[in-house]
Amino acid sequence: FTIVYNSKFDEKLMEDGYINDDKGRYSNSNLFELYPTLNKETSSIVRSITKGEVVIKKFQRIVDFKGNTYCTHNITIPIVIKGKIMGAMELVKDVTTVDYINNEDSYEEENREFTSNTFLDSSKISFENFITRDLNMLKVIEQAKIAAKIQSPTLIYGESGTGKEVLVQAMINYSGISRKNVIIQNCAALPDNLIESILFGTYKGAYTGAENRKGLFEEADNGLIFLDELNSIPYDVQGKLLRVLQDGSFRPVGSNEEKHVNVKIIAAMNVEPLKAIEEKQLRSDLFYRLSGGMIYIPSLRDRKKDIKLFINHYIKEYNNIYEKNAKGISNELEKFFMEYNWGGNVRELKHIIESMIGVTDRKILDVQQLPAYLYNRVYKIKENDKVITNGEPVYNLEAYNLKNILKKKEIETIKKVLEITRGNKTKAGEILGIPRQTLKYKMDKFDIK
Fold it and tell me: If I label 312, which of 23, 107, 290, 416 is the partner at 20 to 30 A Cα–Cα?
């Protein structure tokens, strides 16, 4: 079993810090020479190549020829050409923790395998599944319930990992629309040159090889279509989408025939809409058509009350999955979680708890079980704008985060102008130099009353 490619040493992807000599060592080398602790009988690579199976393993222990220890999540996929298995591709995520490395003798290799029934069925997601005490998030749920029952389009905006798709799944189930009439499409996963034909269909002869095919909108007629990563749709195709929103009409690619559909549209994006408009990722007229039904999901760092709720929920969930008995987290770890910025939001917290429970049998999770990328951020004592990390003073760069500074100033300015105009949004918009609709969007986003 020879490794013919490793993305770690691809010159286009290579990160700083790798030694050039390693590239030759890892290329065209025997798998079991590089990772001598792998078991040939249970290896996911061997199983995938010999049996043609897709293998998913979590918390697999790997020690390389240099003696470095890793804990990884893997998915291994057979490469099949003309019915013959030619090899396998493995995608690997490093979830190694400091505690795992320092106490490797105390752990048994899990190699736990997963099937699709391990995870929540989207058809069973409801608003009752949402975990929150945050007033803004409770408001989001109420907005989503109303939006689910009406035909008007909805635009959901929130950072990556805030739970946009989960909210949409709850809306679909709450709407009463049959799942048979629901189409879900991540627009970022489609090639730019095919998006139009996939969404609106094709007419035979439109281009070489084109046949009469229904598009997703026609498939979703009298139902619902969810377009995730809306801003990934090419600018010109967004104009065609706007027409569907306005009167339900469109023309398949290469056709002069007008078609009409009755489709409820839900769209989502993780880029701030006004920024996307500025960067020509989103048409302003499309945004204004969608903004009347816009729902903003706040980030986890703005929902501090929910952090403990999520911690307890995911500890319980992964205790059941990994057959562990964790009871909670230490005070030190709780303090870190409450101060952490949570760039990956709820998704990041979920995977951190999963990783910690997977590599330890301790009942109280502590900083030692944190993924390695977080560990060095734990020991810090703030001194004005400085941070003490492992005894060494380092500037607290978060204090100089321009985005956060500008956001705070923007909120203060809007509140002040609204005071001056006694809540008159039209006058406030004129003073701020922005349209009233944009001001309303910002007020909803920042929860300004």
Answer: 107
> Which residue from 227, 229, 249, 238 is spatially nearest to 285, judged by alpha carbons?
238
Report how far residue 112's alpha carbon sits from residue 127's, in angstroms, rounded to the nearest whole number. Answer: 31
Q: Three-state SS for 369?
A: helix
Tokens, residue 147: 């939006």
Question: How far is it, in rounded angstroms, from Cα 307 to Cα 349?
Answer: 8
Q: Is 393 helix (H, G, I), strand (E, B) or coil?
A: strand
Q: What does the buried/exposed string (b/e) look like for 255-292 if buried means 16 or more CB atoms within 10 Å of the residue's CB?
A: beeebebebbbbbbbbbbbbebbeeebbbbebbbbbbe
Tell which residue, 58, 9, 54, has the closest CA to residue 29: 9
Share of the chain above pLDDT 70, in %: 83
For residue 375, give the amino acid letter: Y
- Positive or negative, the Cα torsion across 412, 413, 414, 418? positive
DSSP letters for 99-129: HHHHTGGG-----EE--GGGS--GGG--GGG
Give this prediction's pTM.
Answer: 0.66
Strand (E) positions, 154-216?
A: 154-157, 182-186
CA atoms within 13 A on the CB side of 4: 6
Scanning the structure block, which residue is given the tokens 């080398």? 29
Taking residue 19's Cβ as centre, other Cβ atoms within 10 Å add up to 8
User: What is the residue whose two structure tokens read 């598009």?
Assistant: 215
Per the CB < 8 A criterion, the answer to whether 333 and 326 are in contact is no
Say if residues 187 and 194 touch (Cβ distance below 8 Å).
no
**Beta-carbon neighbour count of residue 216 at 10 Å?**
16
- pLDDT tens for 414-443 read 999 999 999 999 999 999 999 888 898 889
At 276 the three-state DSSP class reads helix
Q: How far is CA 289 from CA 24, 220, 244, 272, in A?
A: 55, 20, 11, 16
